[in-house]
Amino acid sequence: MIHYTELFVKTTTFVWGAAWFTFSLAESYIVTLVREHFNHPAIHFIGVGVVALGCSIFIQAMIAMRTSWRVGIDKSTVTKLITHGIYKFSRNAAFVGFDLMFLGLYLMYPNSLTIIIFFLNIVAIHLLILQEEQHLKSVFGDEYIQYCNNTPRYILF
Q: How far is residue 130's CA from residue 79's CA, in Å, rounded to a whole number?
């Protein structure tokens, strides 16, 4: 199951990146293919800010993780539980950063394609988080359970 979830995350993230790149190069052409939900420059600008915030949170998460950083669930490498830095506020700070970047893409290019990409990425990452939590419980036991009791999965919940 983990393999399929990781593949789902990789695929949806690739689609997000490809859409962002494509819209950046040919927004006016693509908008004729997929109807915009709204066209308000202030919201587009807010989208840029949301992407920047997401990137900042993601970078802070990578810095806090240092050598414990892994892509996917790695059962063969022993690491320590990271609870400092941005991880004091969220057990899944890197994923929160990704989620904000996905939301920012929609705000920058608000159409049916980007809203679908946004929701698919949110679902894919949430499924991966649920599996990662099970792995971390098995590796860190009570230390991870205590961390879960004190730190929200996302920023506010």
A: 19
Of residues 118, 98, 110, 96, the one with CA closest to residue 47: 110
Q: Phi/psi at 37 (nearest 5 deg)? A: -75, -35
pLDDT at residue 1 is higher than 60: yes
The C-alpha atoms of residue 154 and residue 145 are separated, in whole angstroms, by 15
Per-residue confidence band for 20, with pLDDT thresholds at 50, 70 and 90: confident
pTM of the predicted model, to two decimals? 0.80
What are the structure tokens assigned to 28, written together?
Answer: 């006016």
Closest listed residue to residue 15, CA positions, set 115, 151, 133: 115
Q: What is the mean pLDDT of residues 52-71?
A: 86
Q: Is the dihedral of CA 121, 89, 109, 48 positive or negative?
A: negative
Maximum Cα–Cα distance across the chain: 54
Task: Determine the residue type at 105.
Answer: L
Quick count: other Cβ atoms within 10 Å of Cβ 58? 20
Look at residues 105, 86, 157 and name the one whose alpha carbon lies nearest to residue 148: 157
pLDDT, tens digit, 9 for 90 and up, residues 109-121: 888 888 999 999 9
